[in-house]
Specification:
By secondary structure, the chain is α+β, with helices and mostly antiparallel strands. It has 11 helices and 11 strands. It has a 6-stranded mixed β-sheet. The protein has a 3-stranded antiparallel β-sheet with strand order 3-6-9, with no helix packed on it. The chain has a two-stranded antiparallel sheet with strand order 10-11. It is globular. About 40% of the residues are buried.
């Protein structure tokens, strides 16, 4: 009877792991984002707004003939509706509401697909004073959507993430270095939490932390839970420290534009790192997981830097903002560890963890990451529902 109970538990664990991973896979790498670049000089304002075609398709529809391909002609046919829809979800104020006129429509490519690029020019009632932005694109249908804002306000650079709880932001002409640090700290935390491939890589490294090998293998009959929490914590500390050190190095080098790699190569390599980490759980080749964390962490650092490439770093607080973003990534990472490790430790002796979470979870992670790799390396669509 007990064996049947655990057998049912393993099946449930597999189903849960698969559903969670499929939800993450549907995001491919990141949640829905738009990129908002605003330049305000006195009472003159210009805006470049990049909105994903998949988000526009979801909101107002673009694919007129239903062939799952959005053409330039289909986008042009919806231009007036697109501009009205987007315009109703963005308001800028300086001494009152600023008025805008549409200037153009283009298409640009980001790492996660094609984006419509709206350009606007406007004028505000006042030339100086507080500047505010109200943003609500897609919040009514997607609470995970975020607007990545880069604002040049009278020569001072500001960056922010616009979400349901921060859809209205006010800025003064000059931001202190402390303000910039806090902004980038928040953005670092948010970036790791929406980076599903980064999270999956980290979890694959953490899964064996509460297990120890019998006879040199981690087969379903050759593993047991570690004796104490200290033993598990030391292994996790080595992994997290190596991962942190590695991605801090390449994040800094990429953000400071010392080294640059093609985004397609970076994203494909990140997917491959998840495949390797999951496969290594099933058949260990690399015994020192901290070494694997360091080597692949170098690649993940370039992935973390991609959001900074969109936001930019303020010239007046460049180093401090970079440190804030990096620290935010670490805080987000430690929050994940703080939730996962105690739960895994409590369950470490059970077949639910050893066979369901560890073994079947590693298989699910490997399959999802393989699909990510194919999508990114060969520009194909595996998750057809995304």
């Amino acid at each position: 009877m007990r064996r049947g109970f655990w057998g049912q538990g393993v099946v449930q664990a597999m189903a849960m792991a698969w559903l969670v991973l499929m939800a993450a896979a549907a995001q491919a790498h990141k949640s829905s984002d738009s990129y908002l670049a605003v330049r305000a000089q006195g009472d003159q304002v210009s805006v470049q707004w990049d909105i994903a075609l998949r988000d526009i398709q979801f909101a107002i529809g673009l694919d007129a003939n239903g062939d799952d391909q959005i053409t330039w002609g289909e986008l042009q046919q919806k231009q007036a509706e697109l501009q009205a829809w987007a315009g109703s979800r963005l308001a800028v104020q300086r001494g009152g509401t600023c008025s805008f006129r549409q200037q153009g429509l283009q298409v640009d490519e980001h790492t996660d697909g094609s984006y419509a690029v709206l350009t606007l020019a406007g004028q505000c009632p006042q030339r100086s004073g507080p500047f505010s932005i109200q943003y609500s694109l897609l919040f009514d249908v997607d609470a995970q959507h975020r607007g990545l804002l880069k604002l040049d306000l009278d020569g001072a650079t500001h960056s922010a993430v616009l979400g349901p709880q921060s859809g209205v932001l006010k800025f003064s002409e000059a931001a202190t270095a402390g303000d910039q640090f806090v902004q980038y700290l928040r953005e670092g935390v948010w970036h790791i939490w929406i980076g599903f491939d980064h999270i999956l890589f980290l979890i694959c490294l953490l899964l064996p932390a509460v297990l120890t090998r019998r006879g040199g293998g981690l087969s379903s009959t050759g593993m047991r839970g570690v004796g104490g929490f200290r033993e598990a914590s030391v292994g996790v500390l080595w992994v997290v420290t190596a991962f942190t050190l590695a991605h801090s190095i390449t994040l800094s080098l990429a953000a400071l534009e010392i080294i640059s790699l093609p985004s397609r190569l970076v994203e494909s390599a990140i997917a491959a790192s998840v495949v390797f980490a999951a496969a290594n759980n099933l058949r260990p080749v690399v015994q020192q997981r901290w070494l694997m964390a360091f080597c692949f962490g170098l690649i993940h650092g370039f992935g973390f830097a991609s959001v900074l490439a969109e936001l930019g770093l303020p010239a007046n607080a460049l180093v401090l903002s970079l440190v804030g973003f990096n620290l935010g990534v670490e805080l987000g990472q430690m929050a994940i560890v703080a939730v996962f490790l105690p739960l895994a430790f409590v369950l470490r002796h059970t077949p639910f963890y050893q066979r369901g979470v560890f073994r079947l979870g590693s298989w699910a992670a490997m399959l999802v990451a393989l699909a990510w790799f194919v999508e990114r390396a060969f520009n194909l669509s595996i998750f057809w529902w995304t």
